[in-house]
Amino acid sequence: MSPGVPAAAERARERIIDAAEECFRRVGVARTTVEDIAAAAGLSRATVYRAVTGGRDELILEVVLRSLRRFLDVLAERLSRERSVPDAIVEGTLSAVAFVRAEPTIARLLVPEAAGHMQAAVAGAGEQVLAVCADYVRPHFETAQRRRLVRADIDVEGAVEFLFRLITSLIVMDRDRSEEATRTFLRTYAVPAIAAS
User: What is the rounded CA–CA span in Å between residue 188 and residue 192?
Assistant: First the structure.
């Protein structure tokens, strides 16, 4: 629960985000209105706007961040089992690419019909997305850096931004490369940028 927010208001907000997620999944981001979300939540439009002052754009971002946190929970568990930093970089990157391609909420934000909505909702929100990713990766990164498995001259925010940009480009510029060829590409170019030699 958010500090200073009454429990009832927090429950209403979660209910609205649930409804938005369901609407985006069912009819797509571009065709979902605040009225649709209010109806799905069983609330009035005014209640939705009171609970989510940023309106539809804020709801798009909240749904994206919720999906991202779910993925990062799974990824953090997986990273803790990887045998090495290079394996964590390669397999974590591949997992992130697969997640975005398969996640309906996020995938629909990347299709042309929703491009304008994505720009409005997510423009300026990149810092929030990067901060959430950095919070999840930081404990693994700092442990690896103490063990001299990660380059000493880089920080977690820079490494996360680098990987975020790489993941985005792998999604947007799909070169029909096989998974094994992508692994080789990542080992050749991404691993040396982060892992200690």
Answer: 7
